[in-house]
Amino acid sequence: MFLFASKWSVASQPMEGHRTGELAVEQIAEASEGGDAVIRSGTARSALRHRDFRIFWGGMFASNIGTWMQNVIIGAYLQKNFDNAGLLGLKEFVQLGPLVFLSMLAGTIADIVDRRRYLVSMQCLQVAGSLVLAFVVASDSPSAAPILACMLGIGLANAMGGPGMSAISPSLVPPEDLPGAISLFSFQMNMSRVIGPVIGQVLYASTDSNAGASAVFIVNAATYGFAIYGLLTARYPRRAGGHSGIGVLRRIEEGFSLAWNDVLLRRVLFVIWTLSLLSLNFISFMPLHAVRNLGIDPKSEPYGVLYAVFGFGAAAGAMSVGSIFASRDKAALIRPGLMCFAVLLFAFAATRVEWVAYPIVCLLGYAYFLTITSLSTVMQAHITNEVRGRVMALWIMGFGGAVGVAAAIWSPVAEWSVSKLMYGGAAWAVVLAILATPRWLHTQEA
């Protein structure tokens, strides 16, 4: 999730050239006084120079550590207690599926209401959901229905808050530092995948009962406080501005129309939606692959390490977009990223040796988030603040929600053979790599 604000808001584009010049002068002066070299715009380091970005980025980092503790452990808990691919798929659907059905409404609301009050309330609802989940899983005879109900509640609150969080982030840095900011947000989300599963697995495995899982969810509830602090402390536009007085349904219709009529947006969204529906199922069914094909106990340290190394690779991939590849055309990174992703997904599906799976899944995470971060950067650099909430809602629907829908659809195939499901995902990634040339992604007219 993203958030931020300062005087460098995208909403102030008429003054962009003048303000960019002022920023450059300030950077040179500060660097000269400190004896440092001038920091290059567009890098992760340049994004961290902005106070409001640092506040919110740090709050989201800490909060996402708790989120990934919960995400990984709930999958391990269900696999350990029920060993059912259909239940794993249903869990993904109730957790992420609401993003498909509610994100556009949520993005439209985020473009109208006071974002700070609205987003803090969504965070508080997720706190309540995690606390109830902690109580439910503590039972010695767990039932799937109340667990799924809790996950649905958390998923609904996340779906209603996600587009607003994403819409705020570009206003926290000047436009020229947006690539670095996007890279850093992807980095923190994936580094939390490294830290969260390790901490969560230690807590989960600390007892033979289900009290360990309950402790994980209580800790996650507490970490939402960091995100709330960031929302309350950072300065950002609390309203999108530029409202025309039209109704919610009309604004939703405009969002879909904009995405369809803009060739670049249409193609970016096609890539992320189909990739999520056909190729990202390995995320939903990794517990199944770990247990049945790699022989890893879901209540063990190797299980947490598997997720951690995947998250480390994903964090490195995201960070490289704002560092190693900061000066590269981001559209030019997408095709090789997709091709590497396809090869590595095939290899991960084929391996049956635990120690071999670790380096493969690490590289898979790198290729995955190099591609996703580059694709997001191409899209976000193309849109304005007035429509950002609705356009980012379509992105979230594809990047998050479609994964949940796909998990429910493909769970019978995963039960039959999770490896074959991943082989199919790798094949579709190859198709997308053939399509996603830089020229194809830069095309502005049909």
Describe the structure.
This protein is mainly alpha-helical. The protein has a single domain, classed as Growth Hormone, Chain: A. The longest helix has 51 residues.
For this entry, give a set of tags:
globular, 446 residues, disordered N terminus, mainly alpha, single chain, Growth Hormone, Chain: A
CATH class: Mainly Alpha
Uncertain segments: 1-37
Strand content: under 5%
- CATH topology, by name, is Growth Hormone, Chain: A
Instruction: Measure the end-to-end span.
Output: 31 Å
Task: Estimate percent helicity.
Answer: over 70%
Fold topology:
Layout (H helix, E strand, L loop, with lengths): L15 H19 L9 H4 L3 H32 L2 H12 L1 H13 L4 H23 L6 H25 L9 H27 L6 H23 L14 H14 L1 H16 L2 H4 L1 H7 L8 H21 L9 H20 L3 H27 L4 H51 L2 H5 L4
Helix pairs in contact: 3-4, 3-8, 3-9, 4-7, 4-17, 5-7, 5-10, 5-17, 6-7, 6-9, 7-17, 8-9, 8-14, 8-16, 10-11, 10-17, 11-16, 11-17, 14-16, 15-16, 15-17
Condensed summary:
The protein is an all-alpha fold and 446 residues long. It contains 18 helices and no strands. The protein has one domain: MFS general substrate transporter like domains (Growth Hormone, Chain: A).
